[in-house]
Design a protein that fits this description.
Largest sheet: 8 strands, antiparallel, barrel
Number of strands: 12
Order of helices and strands: HEEEEEEEHEEEEEH
Low-confidence stretches: 16-22
Number of helices: 3
CATH architecture: Beta Barrel
CATH class: Mainly Beta
Shape: elongated
Length: 250
């Protein structure tokens, strides 16, 4: 993750520097007019340390100076390093703990957000506090192989845990300038999510492993949800440099 972050920051800095002073690299946000800046692309580094990891990017479009919409998409195909052990109990009460093979998990995630800024954000600078409502969807397919309790004996089963997750968050956040075109977007929100969990190719007569944080029985669950983190963004349109007269009237 650290390497990806450094590459992203380097790329955005070089892209801005290639345009020289015309790109407003050497001006402070106070000296710039952002009213023509409608598109921001963002990278979400926290998605790489999620339980269901993805490489995730977002695009924000400004509808009015105080209203914007943001679409975020992510995809991951990583080995799972959190869920490595499980415990199974036989009819006599004996427990067996086993290490699970580290298969690659396929994950797709989408977030759609409507954002309301408390002040006219793009008229004067790209910074501002906001409130937002988002809806999200996640699909995760995790192949697994483990010994399962068949009643009188144990058998190795190969199957897949398939999750469909959807819900919504009410969020508050703020955006600050790291440079005239590079932004830091920080946020926190609470809401609810519904988890639809099923097992594909699970033996029909097998007992499900003891329930834990990562091993729940198939079914549909509605649980409280929280979202928090930060994104690093880059303005696609360069801001206009204010004249001396305009700067004095600010």
């Amino acid at each position: 993750m650290r390497k990806t972050l450094l590459v992203f920051l380097f790329a955005t800095t070089v892209a801005a520097a290639q345009n020289g002073t015309k790109d407003s690299v050497f001006y402070s946000p106070r000296e710039l007019d952002y009213s023509n800046c409608r598109w921001v692309v963002k990278w979400a580094p926290f998605s790489l340390i999620d339980f269901d990891r993805t490489v995730q990017f977002a695009a924000e479009y400004v509808i009015t100076p105080t209203l914007s919409v943001q679409q975020e998409l992510g995809y991951g195909y990583f080995r799972d390093f959190f869920r490595t052990q499980t415990t199974t109990t036989d009819p006599n009460g004996n427990t067996r703990t086993q290490n699970l093979p580290r298969y690659r998990e396929s994950v797709f995630r989408s977030r759609t957000e409507l954002r309301l800024y408390f002040i006219s954000r793009y008229a004067k600078n790209p910074r501002g506090a906001y409130m937002a409502f988002e809806v999200f969807y996640k699909y995760a397919n995790q192949p697994q192989e483990r010994e399962v309790n068949m009643g009188s004996f144990f058998q190795v089963a190969t199957y897949a845990r398939i999750k469909n997750v959807y819900g919504g968050h009410l969020k508050i956040g703020g955006q600050v300038s790291l440079s005239p075109r590079v932004l830091l977007d920080m946020y926190f929100g609470i809401g609810v999510r519904t988890i639809n969990l099923r097992l594909s190719d699970w033996p029909a007569t097998a007992a499900f492993p003891d329930e834990s944080l990562f091993d729940r029985e198939p079914g549909i669950y509605s649980v409280p949800s929280a979202a928090g983190g930060f994104k690093i963004g880059y303005l696609l349109q360069k801001p206009r440099v204010l004249s001396t007269k305009e700067l004095m009237n600010r």
